[in-house]
């Protein structure tokens, strides 16, 4: 997951989504509402335990039908000339809900962090690899600086798999690669990045064995997404 702020071009919903533009999605709205309530409660008391299981259970219900999202064709999506595509579903102070789509096999959301964020991923179409690293500190070093992490390993996920949860201090730095063309996932960030931006890191090569320590080096952001005008739910 990344903030979708670095968008250099856009595709309209008419180009991508054949059904969603004018249709409300009451089932999606009803599913996101309790997650927003959890987000707002958490924002009021950040020292309370975070109810990650509840969010995972709600998000597990979300699929392509609930999103009214047909799988875009390769031919349409490649017109953007961008490997990664982003659409905002909902944005408010305490929660960000987005769609990310990768065009081709090996396209990726490169290694990045989620400072002080609880993040959730549910695959909608296709198949992804998620490489996860845990850093004890959510404070990123300066560009060129290093951070000590623990490589958790890689998961392969499809729409049939459970929601992935990452927490401050656990899996809070990750890279997501597509294993199929037109792979799409929904993510929820609690809270969103706000005024923060994602820090990007060099992917260690070769990868260390899972469950071992590894030092990551921060690098400059060299990545962009194409913004897709999916109809947002401003008010849940
Ligand atoms: Fe991420």
TrEMBL record:
Q: Which SUPFAM superfamilies match?
A: RmlC-like cupins
Going by the UniProt record, its keywords in alphabetical order are: Iron, Metal-binding, Oxidoreductase
GO molecular function list: metal ion binding; oxidoreductase activity, acting on single donors with incorporation of molecular oxygen, incorporation of two atoms of oxygen
Which named protein is this?
Answer: 2-aminoethanethiol dioxygenase
């Amino acid at each position: 997951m990344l903030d979708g702020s670095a968008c250099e071009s856009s595709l309209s919903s008419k180009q991508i989504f054949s059904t969603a533009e004018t249709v409300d999605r009451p089932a999606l709205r009803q599913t996101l509402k309790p997650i927003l309530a959890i987000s707002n409660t958490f924002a009021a008391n950040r020292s309370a335990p975070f109810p990650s299981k509840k969010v995972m259970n709600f998000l597990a219900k979300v699929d392509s039908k609930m999103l009214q999202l047909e799988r875009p064709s390769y031919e349409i999506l490649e017109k953007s000339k961008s490997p990664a595509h982003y659409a905002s579903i909902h944005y408010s102070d305490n929660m960000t809900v987005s769609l990310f789509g990768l065009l081709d096999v090996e396209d990726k959301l490169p290694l990045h962090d989620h400072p002080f964020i609880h993040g959730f991923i549910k695959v909608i179409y296709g198949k992804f690899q998620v490489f996860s690293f845990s850093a004890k500190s959510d404070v990123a070093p300066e560009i060129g600086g290093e951070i000590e992490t623990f490589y958790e390993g890689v998961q392969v996920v499809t729409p049939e798999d459970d929601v992935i949860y990452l927490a401050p201090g656990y899996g809070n730095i990750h890279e997501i690669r597509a294993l199929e063309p037109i792979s799409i996932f929904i993510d929820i960030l609690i809270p969103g990045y706000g005024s923060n931006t994602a820090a990007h890191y060099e992917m260690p090569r070769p990868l260390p064995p899972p469950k071992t320590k590894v030092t990551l080096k921060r690098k400059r952001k060299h990545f962009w997404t194409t913004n897709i005008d999916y109809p947002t739910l401003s008010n849940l």
